[in-house]
Amino acid sequence: MTGFGRASGALSPRYFATVTAKSVNHRFLEASVRLPEYMWDMEAPLRALASEFFSRGKLDLSIRIQRTQQPEYNVRINTQIANTVIPQLRSIAEELGLGASLTGSDLMRVPDFLQVEAIDAEIIDEERDALTALVREAFTQMTTMREREGVSLRNDIAARAASIRKLREEIAAHRDEVRAEVLATYQQRVQELASAAGVDVAQDRIAQEVVIMVEKGDIAEELTRLAHHLDQIEKAIGGKEAAGKKLDFLSQEMLREINTMGSKSRSAAIRTVVVELKTEVERIREQVQNVE
């Protein structure tokens, strides 16, 4: 499901954070966290926090940090480099007749001669807690947006489930008619084959074989399972737990039953309804990819 959340605030007198969270549809939960380098240790806790809020979706969490207070710096001169480089520079200068004096700017050009480090670069626990609170706020906003989308998806799936139930009842109403038609067709076919083969088959034997064939072609079981799957779908979309994976599985099972009914039926009327059923179920399958 798609969603967006944004939160910002001060972590402390020295840091200000802006948190942006967005998600798109995905079969599983895949969280991407972008942090400043000195906050790398917060990545695992923030991923765990995302799993508390969401179970599906491709989540992108971006955190920007701004300094609101200049840090104290530790300035260190690399004496080992100075002791090694300065005598050599003086020697070269004398050989070239440039004089033996070295200025401060000359030394500053030497790589790694002067090292400056911010003393308070790493964040403290209070700042971590403040950042976590901002991420929670962004996730809460995103959850609210996803819930609004979820209401629309639930209404759409519920409407299509109701349409499927009506189409199922329409097929069920033709079931006895189809059984009678199939029974007559098989009886005629068996008699034609027996006559063509020049054999005399007992009527009891013909009736037994025809009944077996009719039972194999009956769609009663498929109708029952289809109704059960519809009940499960209505129960899932009415609950409060994550139902995306369950709805995906149920829609696949409904397609299986509908395809079986289509392969068993010889009636043009039923096959027409089967096509309509498949269309509705395919639309449900498209929608449930967006459901957490």
DSSP strand (E) fraction?
15-25%
| Global geometry | elongated
Work out the helicity level: 55-70%
- Average predicted confidence as pLDDT: 81
Q: What are the segments in which pLDDT stays under 50 over at least 5 consecutive residues?
A: none
CA-based gyration radius? 37 Å
Supply the number of structural domains.
3
Strand order of the largest sheet: 1-2-4-3
**Main structural class:** alpha+beta
Cα-to-Cα separation, first versus last residue: 7 Å
What is the helix/strand order?
EEEHEEHHEHHHHHH
Please give the number of β-strands.
6
| Helical segment count | 9
Q: Could you describe the largest sheet, including whether it forms a barrel? A: 4 strands, mixed
Q: Would you give an account of this structure?
A:
The chain is an alpha+beta fold. It has 3 domains: 3-70 and 129-135; 73-118, no CATH class; 145-288. Helix content is 62%, strand content 16%. The protein contains 9 helices and 6 strands; from the N terminus they run βββαββααβαααααα. The protein has helices spanning 43-53, 79-95, 104-108, 125-173, 175-197, 203-217, 220-238, 244-264, 268-288; strands at residues 3-12, 15-24, 29-34, 57-67, 73-77, 114-118. It has a 4-stranded mixed beta sheet, with helices on one face. A hairpin with a 2-residue loop joins strand 1 and strand 2 (15-24). Helix 4 (125-173) runs antiparallel to helix 9. It is elongated and about 130 Å long. 21% of the residues are buried. The mean pLDDT is 81.
